[in-house]
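User: Can you help me understand a structure? I only have the sequence.
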Amino acid sequence: MNTIAHSLGAAETAPGTGHVSAKRFGRQFAHAADRIFAVLVEAAAAALIVAEICILFAGVVSRYVLDSPLVWTDEAASILFLWLASLGAVVAFRRGGHMRMTALVSKAAPHQQAFLDTIAVAAALAFLLLVLGPAYEYAAEEAYVTTPALELSNAWRAAALPVGLALMCAMGGIRLLRLGNWRLVASAVATVGAICGVFYALGPVLRDLGNLNLLIFFVGVTAATVLIGVPIAVSFGLATFGFLALTTHMPLMVLVGRMDEGMSHLILLAVPLFVFLGLLIEMTGMARAMVAFLASLLGHVRGGLSYVLLGAMYLVSGISGSKVADMAAVAPVLFPEMKERGAKPGDLIALLATTGAQTETIPPSLVLITIGSVTGVSIAALFTGGLLPGVVLGTALCFVVWLRYRNEDLSKVRRASRGEIWRAFRFALPALALPFVIRAAVVEGVATATEVSTLGIAYSLIVGLLLHRDAKWSRLFPMLVETAALSGAILLIIGTATGMAWSLTQSGFSTSLAQAMAALPGGAPMFLAVSIAAFIILGSVLEGIPAIVLFGPLLFPIARAMGVHEVHYAMVVVLSMGVGLFAPPFGVGYYAACAIGKVKPEEGVRPIVGYVLALLTGLAIVAAVPWISTGLL
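Assistant: Let's start by predicting it. Here is the structure, written out as tokens:
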């Protein structure tokens, strides 16, 4: 407040500098407002994550240990979850953390990049303002619904949507104020307003175009906005809102209802909890312990640390559901030693990125959880079925590693003694046991796929307190905030993608798609081949989760009708998306790997070709042999 008052006084008293002082006041006001938002919203989001962990853990203990189930835990968790998703989306919006495609934007000139970045904020603000009114109406309608266990008005839960949207609107305004370049902001806002005005004016014409509007909005508008760097969730939302508002007589409140349905599915509560678990094992040193043990076993063989990287990503993926968290936990431990042995940075990044794709099916994968949420496939079956496909692709990558490092100079490398291996094993044992604890708890029915993450969190906290006393516990709050931001970004995409998928289904597109896929020559093998090609492209452009939410409900029924086992099809789809997600030039996961390894993206383009070919070979084997996905079921 003192900063604001001081700025105001300066703006009033400085002669002849009114315009400059006003601009400076605007920026300082925006910075002060941003700090207030950060304190309040981030603290609330972090508290909600802690509350969710406590509620779900209490549910497991009361049911399995005390044999006295708490009937209200799922209901309370569901209410808080929508608030967590909404506030997490606000935190992500403040941090610029919503997923967007920047491959084309990054190639533009600096002044063009600045304009497109401002357009992205203005477009997001336009969508938020457009949907805010329907969100309020939806929350008001939900006031007439009472929850069965807690007997609360459902408006307490539904109010999270208009509150979250309103806070994001305020944050969007603050972000524009912080730019300080009024001309840039005005031109971006005017551009977005003009485009919206043109579409509104064309409304009567669009209504007469019938199904051609599917191409205009769901292909044209979505592709254009994604390519210029508008957040993917906003792109989906704008396309769906425009389609419903301008070409149908459907109440816009329906879009908010579908967003609510997509964002608040209780299965998806596993997303923030497993993200936090991944950050927790990195903070407590459990990930480093696993890597050190594997290095003691294989560090003395040619390409040994590359094999360690593959094995470590496989094990860490069995704890965390986030690939970025997995890569961030493993790479900093291994890369310095690998570089000392002569490995090129580009090759390291290429291997890191492709291991991200290879381990996409390792439970508890966020993509597998999403598939179970939107298609109804058993998550326990998906978790079991995902183990062997990861081994197959890992074997293919190991072959490439062997080819590249078979002549590696190991003259300066010392083989670990049996005593050192034993000490490393003892220190890593609690971490090595965690993936098996998680899987056993789900398979044996101790906890659901959502609740099991709380067991992993409790386990990791105990291990961290007793064995890894060098853990930096001051990082807990930033980790909770980071979890909320990443989860909010993911869940907002799921919400808007659910609305788009519903609109596509209502338009008859799903029926047409089913007929077209069924008419493909070659039956199930051709269907799988087309699915692989399609999801590689979708994974590179939309990332995995948005593509699954959009096309999973459409394609999984077709797969069943063609005799393809749903778990087998899920593995093929997830691995295909992983290849697209972690391969240049568009794969966002590839650029995340480059950021984690602090390597320029162009250095990894040539080395990654061999690894991608290995992934495609492994993917073809998984697609051709269903037993790999279903043999353990």
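Now, to help you interpret it: DSSP finds 29 helices and no strands in the chain. Confidence is low (pLDDT under 50) at residues 1-16. Let me know which part you'd like to focus on.
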